[in-house]
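# step 3/5: fold
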Amino acid sequence: MKAEKEHIDELIVSYLSNELDGNAVHELKEWIAASVENEKYFMQRQEIWFSAISVKEDVKYDKSKAFEQFKNRIANQRLNDKRERENFCLSKFWRYAAVIVVSGKAGVEVGTEKAWELCDKYKLPRMIYVTEMDVDDASFRQVVQDLTDRYGKVIAPHFQPIRENEKLVGYVNVIKNAARRYTGVGQREECEIPEYCKPNLEIYRDKLLEAVAETSEAFMERYFDGDEFSVEEIRSAMRTEVMDGDIVPVAMGSNIQAQGVANLLSDIVRFFPSPDNRSCAGINRKTNEIFEGNYDFAKAKSAYVFKTMVDPFIGKYSFIKVCSGVLKGDDTLYNGDSDAEAKLGKIYTMVGNKPTEVSELFAGDIGAIAKLANTKTGDTLSTKNTPVMYGKTEYSKPYTYMKYICNNKGDEDKVSQALQKMMAEDVTLKTVNDSENRQTLLYGMGDQHLEITASKLATRYKCEIKLETPKVAFRETIKKKSDVDSKYKKQSGGHGQYGHVKMRFEASGDLETPYVFEEEVVGGAVPKNYFPAVEKGLQEAVVKGPLAGYPVVGVKAVLYDGSYHPVDSSEMAFKTATIQAFKKGFMEASPVLLEPIASLTVTVPDDYTGDVMGDLNKRRGRVLGMNPTEHGYQEIVADIPYMELYGYNTDLRSMTGGSGTFSYEFARYEQTPSDIQEKEIAERAGKLDNTDNS
């Protein structure tokens, strides 16, 4: 049996090397056709062979030399800076290959362009899969043309649809120059290439062969001599070109009809780099040195948590990629991110939300662990003796937010617990408690994201919330100076109360500090032991300003005179007198409302800069400058009031067709325009009156 396998291996290698004569080729083909197992065995050996020889003759870089340099770096270098460690981990982990899905009906959309840009950013080999080819008005030819117009000669379709009566009935394999017709779900048979397919087929095949010819001088000579390339030569050359980013294959199919999916999976195996050759590196937390996981069974156990699922019925599951070693149910692993150990218990493989228990998971496997405490998405699990940290996945920061209110009183705790479970699943979702405005804010990636979250709360957890426009965190301050005299005197038959202060109020110029307190009392008009009471009165007064009830900032208060009673004076009396003095002095010093200003960065294609800048002006924004970026985009920097950011995500998406993105951060407080100030004070006064009456 062993001798037979060795003989078959020799035949396969000779065949793939184009060194097999006619009789031996016939023998090999008969052996392959004898059983499904033989065909599978041949395909495995073929993929191994392709991965072994897939190096250009005019190679751009020496891969073996680069690998040696990498090993030397591992042996000699210690990464001490935390950020450098994280960046290194990130660069060596997960960044592998991508399949960009394009609708055959909708064509190239903004999402397609963004996916391509991400692939460029991380230098990912990529493939394009055109789906929805069973739809009436789908056009594979148009999609290919649009892709070529945008990205040039790298686009290489290697399948062509056969459509009859606006339905997908088969395909032409451009590499093999042969056609297949679908006979059932997952079934197909050979057929003749339809005449109407041949013009486009010739274009696609010429483009493919030209790309193959460019992989080496020998191939180029054969191409100009009119020689035909074998299927194995084309695939081998394509693999090299795909991994170098010089070719982007384009496949097609229909997911609903299960057509083309098998071809796509085969192409992923054929053209994308094998995980066996993938570097997987992290940092040893204990030694601060590079740890190479590399999906090696023999190394210390380590795994990366890339997803969390929390189901109301089946509980919490942490999805993991095993990076090294072999995980078993009785293992105890250490989570360096939460500094906690946990016994795994049962481990599973998942199909959708259906778990299947397994005894062990090997390096390279994807699995799930149930009820793993103190573990979240992005954490690394390892042994305590070899604590490893892999680079965390980069997620977008949520900027869109709304206030939410529970529809039913008493559901606050239920909603809070449900949101905590949803945030464990979705790291781009977060809640913030705004105590100043007595509101709870829900942050997400857009209005639709927040609406879907509210819908999930209702369907999954049976609790309903209402999303509303959030309140803006205004501040109050003064522009001028004031001088007030405040006396608190109370006599009710027994021990009285007496406190008397004379104070000056003016702007401090520091809008990050509520107040600055100074004393200039001479002659003991106000004893020193009452100074803390005066400052305590200021502390209480600035929490809720006299103008509209917002916190006060940027006020300088000076105590310069007053009086006291040797019997009736107390700390409470001086505190009360100070609060009265503050309210009076504040209102006499030209009080104003301050609104928060955001530093906004908007990234849009060149064509939309005019519309975006015009919209920012309407929102009281001040454009500070523009910076060109990659891929024909402009980065617009502006200052804009927070209250004008509400709904900006939707408007920007509408203006730019979904291609624009934005980010912002708090910059400072500025004086609110008079019309907005008057309106806010009036609304706030009514709310405060209602609160007082209640």
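# step 4/5: annotate
The two ends are 91 Å apart (CA to CA).
# step 5/5: archive (pending)
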